[in-house]
Amino acid sequence: MNIVIGSDHSGFGLKEKLKKYLQTAGHNVFDFGCYSEEAVDWPDIALLVAEAVVKKDYEKGILIDGTGGAMPLAANKVPGARAVCAYNELTGKFAAEHDDCNILCLGGRMIGDLEAHEIVKVWLQTSYAGGRHQRRLDKVVEIERKYLK
Fold first, then answer.
1. Is 27 designated active site?
2. What is the pTM of this model?
3. Per DSSP, what are the bridge partners of residue 61?
4. Residue 50: which H helix or E strand, with range?
5. Which residues pair with 30 in a beta bridge?
6. In 3D, which of 1, 66, 98 has the Cα closest to residue 82?
7. Which fold has domain 2-147?
8. 113-125 and 89-97 are packed helices; what angle lies between their axes, rounded to 10 degrees?
9. Where are the beta strands (DSSP E) in 43-102?
10. Do the beta carbons of residue 18 and residue 108 sit within 8 Å?
11. pLDDT tens-digit series, residues 63-99
């Protein structure tokens, strides 16, 4: 799978470890920054990753900040982005199964490396269930359309 990954400075350490984990698992990983622990503006990274995923340049995206809550604020402004924060395996599973999440957001200061690996693994292995969940995602698309006028 082709996966794009990005972080702010507080997620940099976890991003570097996740890149290695994903590559070892056989995925192609493309890093959109940041590239050190020097402070950056997280909306810039979130926008790059969200645009690339929505354009289908990559199959999935991962964003990492300190808590996992900031990156989705910016990423979800891009129509078609479904960025969801996960903090354990179950929330990672539901992000994929219920929300058809195409960008997983993690908190580099909130979870450990092994937990992050397991969340990502479950998220990547879980398929979108559709069904009753599709009606709700259709409503999200309608909200996007309403505000794009």
1. no
2. 0.97
3. 4, 103
4. helix 42-54
5. 4
6. 98
7. Ribose 5-phosphate Isomerase B; Chain: A, (3.40.1400)
8. 20
9. 60-65, 83-85
10. no
11. 999 999 999 999 999 999 999 999 999 999 999 999 9
